[in-house]
Amino acid sequence: MCGIVGYVGDRKKTVGVLLDGLTRLEYRGYDSSGIALMDDGRPRVFKSTGKLENLKKKIAKHPLEGLLGIGHTRWATHGDSTEKNAHPHVSAGTSVVHNGIIENYSELKEELIRKGFKFYSDTDTEVLAHLIESCCGGDLSFEDGVREAFRRVEGSYAVAVISDRAPDKVIATRRFSPLIVATGDHENYLASDVPAILPYCRNVIFLEDGDVAVLDKNSVTITDIDGGPVKRDVQTINWDPVSVEKCGYRHFMIKEIHEQPQAVLDTMRGRFSEETGEIFFEGFEGSPYKDINRIMALACGTSYHASLIGKYMIETIARVPVQVEIASEFRYRNPILDKQTLAIAVSQSGETADTSEALHEARAGGAKTLSITNVLMSKIARDAERVIYTHAGPEIGVASTKAFTTQLLVFYLLSVYLGRVKKQIDREKAAELIRDAIRLPQLMQMTLRLDDEIKDLAKEFFHYRNFLYLGRGISYPVAFEGALKLKEVSYIHAEGYAAGEMKHGPIALIDDEMPVVLIAPNDGITYRKILGNLQEVRARRGKIIFLTSDTTPEELRGSVDRVIEIPACNYLLSPLISVIPLQLLAYHIAVLKGTDVDQPRNLAKVVTVE
Ligand code: G6P
């Protein structure tokens, strides 16, 4: 949660770079924002509540310049969303922006109040500004003062500081929250995440826990917390800058829905041989998982739903039992782990605190660890022994779409890999499964042509106040995901249910005010049963939206209100297709309701609190 940026270089560029960077980080939080600029040796601070737009309007009234500056977009944890709680926080000539939570802030605050510092906000971050000021007296240089301060801080943080004590520098440090430095020509950048700097430069250093970076116009120096030199590699990022633009789409969500065929193609590229049925994942040399006898998938939200589908894939193809765990619950129940367990942490952002903590628990319990994530060098990517990256590109819309389908693809390829390792499938079967995956981008493209039809459907259904999503077998987690999408972006109450469970409770809710979305690709396994569920809904006058890969029989057409026909494919891959109409439905309903699609109320894309 929260995004931070920093810049030092061309004084005419500073304000633009900071606001532009914050725009690209707004997915991390959007209830208030602020910047601090160093001008004529003194920091100037501008803050605003609400969307970044408000800050931009405020700043537009004052033409500003500054050699350097820092900025912040906030998702409130300590203190509500008021201007006084917005960052940067100030102590004398020092300004601080922070992403994370300071755990020992109460003790530090009491001590600083005793020393005479005055607090103006309810945040934990203000402690950092005063603590740095209190450490900077005497003989210590500003940089040493910052290091001294952070030796005393407990919790998680990515922090950027500017001060009149060193008016040509931005100082940054991190622990458990992400922070990157990007190097340009006589200018240097700082940000929580790559998209913020993508239009300006590609050379990125991923700071590690305990690193302290000092940026001036011409150099970046990285040390540890004691001032000892630290060497970090510069990595070149090859994401296309248009990936962080809307490119004519009205919202990132709809753009990202339409990017799915490409995202899936990018995620499969170079990872298999169609001829030999082999799967290639970096770091998998020497068959590290040949002895595992159980898998635990740890995840939250949409990634949790992807994991539920991953369970079907792995158990069907590789016959290894998979337990799927809500990450926030996992660590509180003393899980049974051993070295034959493979724990897979699944996270788009690679930063979700619940998933990260669950991963640590699994590791401490002796399990082997693997992560599936979309963000290069993210915390979860680094904390697991191995990582498989999804190559979805930056996902900006808060409601996850292309990250979900690429996670599903990774689970599928992993299933084929494990199927071979565990000798459950032969080379020919593996090659056949791979061929099915190769067809996916085209099938997804065909499904996306339903966009207009679903827009029409949304007009018919957007005024309903409740929705039920039902699926069986591998489509049952798809029902969860469809319901979650609708809740997130349209604020309509929706529930996903295993269709067979409907008769054990939810059936009581069904009447003519309850649309029911039945997800029923014809799998030859559960299809007949779901047709039975359809009749149960019909008998109670529920409105039915029927999603199927079958050419719907005539007699059925009369029993349902709307049919959405999706292309048929391998049963295990059907969720990558069937979820697309559900994403589109949620999107179009949200647009009709006029909600903030890309930044729905109360949510944040990256949740770094437990
Ligand atoms: C937040 C987002 C969800 C996301 C979940 C897990 O709650 O709003 O869209 O599914 O976090 O995120 P992760 O980055 O771990 O996949």
Provide a quick synopsis of the model:
The protein is of the alpha/beta class. It contains 19 helices and 24 strands.
Overview of this protein structure:
Helix 3 (105-114) crosses helix 4 (125-135). Helix 10 links the parallel strand 17 and strand 18. 56% of the residues are buried. With 610 residues, this protein is of the alpha/beta class. The chain is built from 19 helices and 24 strands. The site of 6-O-phosphono-alpha-D-glucopyranose (G6P) has 15 residues, from helix 8.
Supply the key terms.
19 helices, 610 residues, 22% strand, six-stranded antiparallel sheet, alpha/beta, single chain, 34% helix, globular, binds 6-O-phosphono-alpha-D-glucopyranose, eight-stranded antiparallel sheet
Mean pLDDT: 92
What would the principal axes of the Cα set say about the shape? globular
The total of helices stands at 19
> In which order are the strands of the major sheet placed?
3-2-4-1-10-9-11-14
* Quaternary structure of the protein: single chain
Helical coverage, percent range: 25-40%
Indicate the low-confidence ranges by residue numbers.
Answer: none
Bound molecules: 6-O-phosphono-alpha-D-glucopyranose
> What is the C-alpha radius of gyration, as a whole number of Å?
26 Å
Q: CA-to-CA gap between the ends?
A: 11 Å
What percentage of the residues does DSSP assign to strands (E)?
A: 15-25%
Q: What structural class results from the helix and strand content?
A: alpha/beta
- Give me the count of strands: 24
Largest sheet: 8 strands, antiparallel
